[in-house]
Queue: 3 jobs
Job 1
Amino acid sequence: MLNSTKTIQSLRGMKDIVGSESELFTYFIENASKIAQKYGFSYIETPLLEETALFKRSVGESSDIVNKEMYQFIDKGENDVCLRPEGTAGVVRHFVEKKLDRAGGTYKWYYYGPMFRYERPQKGRLREFHQFGCEVFGIANVYEDANIIMLIREILEYFDIGFTLKLNSLGCVLCMPQYKNNLVNHLNSFKSELCEDCNRRVDTNPIRVLDCKNEKCQTLLKDAPKITNSLCSSCNSDFEKLKEILDFNKINYEIDSNLVRGLDYYNKTAFEFVSNEIGAQSAIAGGGRYDRLVEFLGGKSTAGIGFAIGIERLLELVKIKKEEKEFLYIGVLDEISLNKAFEIAIKKRKTTKTYIEYTPRGFAKHFGIAQKLGCNIVALIGEKELENGIIYTKNLNTKEENNIILEDF
């Protein structure tokens, strides 16, 4: 029998976004979206629930996400579905479903919203988390790789977040197979010493071994062959050109030959932005090129590149800029003034964030409520003010007080 007295709490690894955190969250989304729009991106919203096959074919069945972390179930229609663990696959699914791969042209979308992965909750890592991301289709030019990196840099710099850019190339269908053979031969020489996950990856997706966070594995991998030494002429030319563009635009970076990203669909350019300000989970943004992903999902070969930013990881570093935004508090000193105060509030909301307190109170009480709400301007009206056609205002930051003619206000 259901215990109706038991308090229901949020699920482990999931949390409410409210108060000062919600203010930071919406502040980040609003400004990151404006920057993406400046770069020619338009908004796309994809469903939270998708066919499981979408992620098995895109993210890769060998990935930890598909193997261990998906919220997967059979729905009432006997469909195998899951909550999205990342954002790119759904956008690519839309691109193919709407036959945009056949139409040709360039498409740029940005998105934000919740993703779901069943993993051990820790600081900066939740089971329901939020990402902001951008995806580009139809541009194979390496200048777009640089453009995406500059977009992320502009977002992070807007919020005064320090970062290090790590860069790698994962090659293509011409150079990656030979590299994988070389890597597997190297790994097999000490395979028994690798962790359980790495042993599995040697057979399923060997380059993912390079991404292992186990300290012993990282020590063993110190002398592993580097993909950047095995690139074909086309991939090498693109990688050198990308570095040249970043150098010309004074964007500092580090080459990290073990950077492979956590998803199977990347090729050529791969990058991560990392921060030393948030502890062990230092990656705050990452992405790269995925020129074969549209094909993996049944579409026509189409160049693609994108990135995602983990919003929760950034929020503790985000500070709202001090350009003071007016938050108006309107209060009444008596019942007679409430109709006028209500009319004023309706008009002010067209241009200003406004709160109205309906209960008549004295000055001190109104100031106290306004401060708790975070309002910076208080406007009070009573019978006397109504008769004189004025409204009393006080700026709680500067302490400046005025009686303003109602029409001017």
Job 2
Amino acid sequence: MKIIIQNIEFDYNIGCGLLKLKYNECPFPELSDSWDDIKPLSFKEIAEFNNLEQRRVGILCLGLERLVKEVNPILINEKTITKTTNWVGDDGELIKKDYRDSYELFKVSSEYFNKNLDDNQRQMGSVYFVKCKDTSTNREYFIWVDILSVYQTNFDTKSIWRMTTEQVENKINALMAIAWTIQTNIAKGKISKIIRQGDCVLIKPKSDFLPLDNPRHLTEKEYLKLLVAES
């Protein structure tokens, strides 16, 4: 018997172990009788999958918070900015507030994902995430980012094909990474303002905007210039 997770096939026992990682409660009635006895897979077990796509799905099921506890992520860049912004108070009124907002960009080296693989097996590259805090609760969040896409969002896309991964890492920063996590169908130059309420982001367009056919990521400059209120 097989289990399909995100269109990738797993042996039954392995699939059950991944589902136990991904869900706090039993996702399927068929597993309810055995759910409490299923042991969630560890990062070490996932890293030893021979199949690259199975490793990718396994890491997603594991989640960033647990991954960070089991590996030694490398800090690539950190940025702290001081903001004076309009904060939405409990009564709905805007309040001027000064505060410091910190972001950190990390890499998890590919060496963790490719142990015990031979030369004929596909290698998995390093993965990257940005760490930030919720402005209202102070809770820490870990968000996956694609550094090639982060670079393309902020720089000339033609040059990236001549660059090494290390060169791309040296060009991007944590603010670019956090801005990249926000997508919009509003073209550059057509955003009036951005309002953030916890993890909900509201983007107001200018009156003459036309929606893009395909969503795009925000740039660092847009994130810094257009974010006018938070709560």
Job 3
Amino acid sequence: MHKKIAIIGTVGVPANYGGFETLTEYLTKNLADKFDITVYCSSKIYKDKASRYNGARLKYVPLNGNGLQSIFYDIISIFNALFFADVLLILGVSGCIVLPFVKLISNKTIIVNIDGLEWKRFKWSKPTKWFLKYSEKLAVKYADTVVSDNRVIQQYVKKEYHLDSQLIAYGADHATKEQISHDILVKYPFLSQKYAFKVCRIEPENNIEMILETFSVYPDLNIVLVGNWQNSNYGRKLKSKYGQFNNIHLFDPIYDQNILNQLRSNCFIYVHGHNAGGTNPSLVEAMYLELPIFAYDVAYNKETTLYKAQYFNDSNQLLDLFKEMTSDTLKANANAMYTIAKDAYRWEKITNDYAQLF
């Protein structure tokens, strides 16, 4: 009899959304022969509801897995899982507000990956920040095991809650190098020149404006920035302000992994502006693709790249990095990134670490 595992807190699989979904994709792929896995999915996203995927059973909840509804989405999933699962793996803290009650009525093993410090993000209102911080506190207090995906988060949990959490990062070896195809080159001729690249959600904490501002005064290098520009006023404003510069190319989200990999793996520099969260998926994927990385100077990014990338705090520092870069420094940066990624950010290693917890 295999141990029964319920994975809660993602939009679902097959993964087409973000980091937790990709993690779930590989947990099911690599561990379905060792464990009996059930994944909770949003029926709002998956219209044709497959009953199994990668050897795991899929259960559907009729709510969105993101935004405000995600709180109730997670809570419903948690209570449903109590009926059959031995271990509940909860990804993110929004539904953890119910854990004190769950622990009263059940002795199931609860593992929570607390993600980044979600309550610190600029985009949340004061009440939302309070709620997320309170959920984090309950998650840490009532989980049997807490997972941190970055040493900085691990240190925070230790300092804030006097608790030792398990450090398990994120895999990147699903990112593959692709040559730029003839069709893509015809569509985007500027790709034959040197270009920087960034893919992210268009949110203030990813320092999009600072990066675009830098490129607007540095015409010697193109930038391709892929993100959800239409989702907010902030995104639409930036797109209309910076979209007319010849060297700035702003693309809407690209869900075709092959095209994304073509654009990403052939860039001259990968610019990473995130200042929140833990181990960021797009960063470790860029590292695995052996790209030279210029990252925003925060502890998470430095820890992920083991202090071996180039770092910037503002537009002027980023501009200086561009002006000072040589082919030797870029090559050394790229080599260091790949060496770190192939050692630390492989899915086989990551999923084995979770298997040990289960």
